Amino acid sequence: ASVESARAAGGALPDADHLLATALASLGGRPVPGSALKLQMRKHDANFDEARYGFGSFLDFLKAHADLVDIYKPTVGDVTVAPKGGLTHFVAPGIEGDTFFAPPLPASSAM
User: Fold this and answer.
1) Residue pLDDT, tens place only, 55-67
2) Which residues, 6 or more positions from 82, have their beta carbon under 8 angstroms from its beta carbon?
3) 3-state SS of the chain: helix, strand, coil percent to 5?
4) Which of 27, 43, 66, 87 could share a disulfide with 70, CB 3.0–4.6 Å?
């Protein structure tokens, strides 16, 4: 489902935007596993379910909120989500048209 069709279905996405941003901020505003983000969203709103907004999966919900978050989905494992600009954006070579997100390199820990 698209953002537009979900908004038309219930007009509830502005609340979802706020919930997503609030939950991510409460987790430190850093890259986190999608499962941890969804759990945090449910702590803020026990009734949260992406299906209420017209999405078949949490990943689809996150993709519809690409204006708020960066997403990294590895081939295997949980998605990583960060506030917009929190992940390094690149297009994988050899996969024309597909956009991927990768976590930023860790800061040097020189002491």
Assistant:
1) 999 999 999 999 9
2) 24, 30, 31, 32, 69, 70, 103
3) 40, 15, 45
4) 87
